[in-house]
Design brief:
This is Rv2525c-like glycoside hydrolase-like domain-containing protein. InterPro entries: GH, Rv2525c-like_Glyco_Hydro-like. It holds the Pfam family Rv2525c_GlyHyd-like. This protein is α/β, with parallel strands linked by helices. The protein has a single domain, classed as TIM Barrel. 25% of the residues lie in helices and 27% in strands. The chain has five helices and nine strands, in the order E-E-H-E-H-E-H-E-H-E-H-E-E-E. It has an eight-stranded mixed barrel, surrounded by four helices. A hairpin with a 2-residue loop joins strand 8 and strand 9. Helix 3 runs parallel beside helix 4. The protein is globular.
């Protein structure tokens, strides 16, 4: 696991991460299905948010056609002072709960599929100028991890994806529901499973925002600076006359380095 380089102050633009490890952001951020234009990010400069989640790759994305997302967009966001959380929505668990995600199942060879999609995640990130040492967050929507066969298939895919990302010099992160994928990761950690993601991004809405008080996780697990709490979703906010529908996040975790 790479050492953490530093905690980034809210007003300091992200630059390339030092060789000692990824940069970390502590503060509020949001994610939204379609990366907004830079003019909107500029208008949101005094919103109190300092990081933006970007759905940059993966066959399971709800918004696969990103109108604005490019290397130029990423460098522009960086220069405006925004931190970036790169999100990859690949294949989904065979027992995923959301009907909209059932068309992208993990198949009969989850290890191979996870490896292939981990490599894809790295290639897509690199093509956008997201450098090695950056985190890549795998989005796995809520699934029935208690189903032994399905849970095993899903875990095999996640482990292979994480290992492939790690081997290529990036930091594997993982997003899921706190009571689903995140609890599954915690149970796997307690069981001594290897190749788990290095960062956890857990969704638990309608509770106070906190990276330290998630009941699905042991207090010392994925610490320090390895957690993101998505604490609200599908809310609309307007700043500078620009409206977005977003999910709200509290972040204490690595962010992308962009060159």
């Amino acid at each position: 696991m790479a050492a953490l380089a530093q905690v980034v102050a809210h007003a300091v633009p992200v630059t390339a991460a030092p060789a000692s490890g990824p940069l970390v952001f502590r503060g509020k951020g949001f994610d939204t299905c379609q990366a907004p234009p830079l003019t909107t990010l500029s208008a949101w400069g005094h919103s109190g948010y300092g990081a933006v989640g970007v759905y940059y790759g993966g066959r399971g994305r709800a918004c696969p056609n990103q109108k604005y997302l490019s290397h130029r967009w990423l460098t522009g966001a960086r220069d405006l002072g925004w931190r970036v959380l790169p999100i990859f929505v690949g294949s989904q668990s065979p027992c995923v709960l959301a009907e909209s995600k059932r068309g992208y199942p993990i198949g009969d060879y989850p290890e191979d599929q996870g490896t292939d999609e981990g490599r894809e995640a790295v290639r897509a990130a690199s093509a956008l100028g997201i450098t090695s040492g950056s985190p890549l967050y795998l989005d796995m929507e809520a699934y029935d991890y208690g189903d032994e066969d399905c849970g095993g298939t899903t875990l095999a895919y996640i482990r292979s994806w994480s290992a492939a990302v790690d081997r290529r010099g990036y930091v594997p992160g993982f997003y899921s529901s706190a009571e689903s994928g995140v609890r599954h990761m915690e149970l796997s950690r307690r069981a001594g499973v290897s190749d788990l993601p290095d960062i956890l991004w857990f969704a638990r809405w309608r509770v106070p925002a906190s990276t330290d008080h998630e009941r699905a996780l042991s207090s010392g697990a994925w610490q320090p600076h390895r957690r993101i709490h998505q604490y609200a979703g599908n809310v609309s906010e307007t700043y500078g006359g620009r409206k977005l529908t977003i999910d709200r996040n509290l972040i204490d975790a690595p962010v992308a380095s962009i060159e």
